[in-house]
Amino acid sequence: MARAAVPGRLGDRLRWRIAEVAGRRVESATAVTLTLEIPDWPGHLAGQHVDVRLTAEDGYSTQRSYSIASASNGRSLDLTVQRTSGGEVSPYLVDELVPGDQLELRGPVGGWFVWRQQQTEPVLLVAGGSGLVPLMCMIRTREAAGSRTPFRLLYAVRSPSDLLYGSELRQGAPGLDTTYLYSREALKDSARPPGRITPEDLARGGWPPDFEPTCYVCGPTAFVEKTAAYLVLLGHAPERVRTERFG
Amino acid sequence: MTSVEPGGSEVNDTDAGYVDGNALAGPLSEVFAVDVTTATSRCANCGCTGPLARLRVYKHAPGLVARCQQCGSVMLRATRTRDAVWLDMSGAVSLAIPVGET
């Protein structure tokens, strides 16, 4: 942990960089993935985020943070953005940006909610809705590194049509177990009735606390709150439960 | 993660009113050369220690307000003005920042 948490950042403060939209992919009815190209991108760790700044012609400026979805490749990065109704920034990013457009970006930042391939303990990932994004970055980083570290993903999502990265997750990867927890509407042949995440879900789809997994939980604040409390209740050490709350 | 900026208007993305200390990473990267969210802070009120990343950050104040995850006391406040970053750390006794071995 002590060593440079962020590659390329020790001894250097972050500056805003210009990123160019190089690709746009629809993920669901409300989410798109933007591929951004940034000259001299230092690379990133799985789970880190970037700040995006938009400035209007009249000088009004606002910024938001987005988790990185893609494994580090040294050239570009993917951000998956979910449209927030009534939002100020996300509808613009989801609906209006096209390849060739430019954005101001600062990052990568955050050294706590990250998974490093040197970690050998089992990993439990618990995603609520678009909280999957930084966890997907961990899954992709594991895959890109050829790591055999066992991963389990519990993905809580409203309905099958809200799934992000559906085909990629269905395809799976050796050593990655994925369980879907639908809250409103499940598949017809699903054994689990639709409903919110429960301690039983975590016990069944997660790891026994004896295995000392690191648990990463990302999602809306209320979801994260509840899930982290359940994990501790089930016997996981609080310091092994890392959280990232948003909405 | 969606919005972590002070004064962000997407209020529906923080249903419980706060996010994690991870949200401090970007704003504090403007002044610190290393990631301070992994730094260990000690609460001036209850004495508990933990990484900044675990604090509860309220961002709908003017600026960012980080509270102790145990006792809720304000440990750190950060505000960006046009030409300065103001950092009030009167609620934290100490901050141990990992920098690697010498």
From TrEMBL, chain A:
Top-level taxon: Bacteria
Pfam families for this protein: FAD_binding_6, NAD_binding_1
Q: Which cofactor does it need?
A: FAD
- PANTHER family membership: NADH OXIDOREDUCTASE HCR (PTHR47354), PROTEIN RFBI (PTHR47354:SF5)
Domain called FAD-binding FR-type: residue spans: 14-115
Work out whether the entry's keyword set contains Iron.
Answer: yes
Q: What is this protein called?
A: Ferredoxin reductase
Lineage at the top is: Bacteria, Bacillati, Actinomycetota, Actinomycetes, Kitasatosporales
**Which species expresses this protein natively?**
Streptomyces lanatus
Instruction: Enumerate the UniProt keywords alphabetically.
Output: 2Fe-2S, Iron, Iron-sulfur, Metal-binding
UniProtKB/TrEMBL annotation, chain B:
Q: Which InterPro entries match?
A: DUF6510 (IPR045423)
Q: Report which superkingdom the organism of origin falls in.
A: Bacteria
**What's the name of the protein?**
DUF6510 family protein
Tell me the organism: Streptomyces lanatus
